[in-house]
Write a structure and sequence with these properties.
Elements (H helix, E strand, L loop, with lengths): L11 H15 L11 H8 L3 H13 L3 E4 L3 E4 L4 E4 L6 H7 L4 E12 L2 H6 L7 E11 L2 E11 L14 H7 L4 E12 L2 H7 L6 E11 L4 E9 L4 E4 L1
Parallel strand pairs: 3-10
Antiparallel strand pairs: 1-2, 4-5, 5-6, 6-9, 7-8, 8-9
Helix pairs in contact: 1-3, 2-3
Length: 236
Amino acid sequence: MKNLQSESSSPLYHQLMQRLAEDIERGKYPVGSRIPPEHELEALYKVSRVTVRRALSELTAEGLLEKKQGKGTFVSTPRISQDLKSIHSFHDACKLNGFRGGTILVHVKEVNADDSDICELELREGSKVVETLRVRTADGVPVVLEKNHFSMAYSYLENENLAGSLYGVLRDYGIEPKQASHDISMAFATDDQAKLLNIKKGDPLMRLHEVVYDQKGRPLHNSLQLIRGDRFVFRI
């Protein structure tokens, strides 16, 4: 095993991060496995405890590792990363991260517009909207519960196959999602939400509310996404 280079321009902690990441990628430390404790890494790579802790801390912040109180540091289950600065479909985000994206359509139906719909989609009082409720999966694992509201101008969505990329369907109609506003907060899974996401009632979720605009700057839809933080991470 090649030693870390103290004379390199790259800090030792960064070199150790790269070495551990490479070991994980090669399968030396599989997903869910415990990596050696700090004192063993210190002796193995001939670096200080401070260097080891810095490397582990950075890899934990990146989501590659996770610390379990009283048990040690383990290789995390890979998470999907999505940049909020860009408009990507869930399928695109999965593909970029090496996952197979999937969709379970719960329902598509017309409902009464609520106050948020009227404001965000620029609708009249008493309007209806098309609601889509879908579970988004990555390699078959439920990751996101997504509810979208569209104005009735998009009623054709009720007759489309929404088990794939919704944005792909819209692009077939010449509609291009271009920009979005975001609000992120925390939520806790209700019983129904937990069943759809295959988690426990009360488990914490990221709550992402978006208003998405088309290529002409018009409101396209709003969206409420409940996201498993153990499987998904955003870049801002």
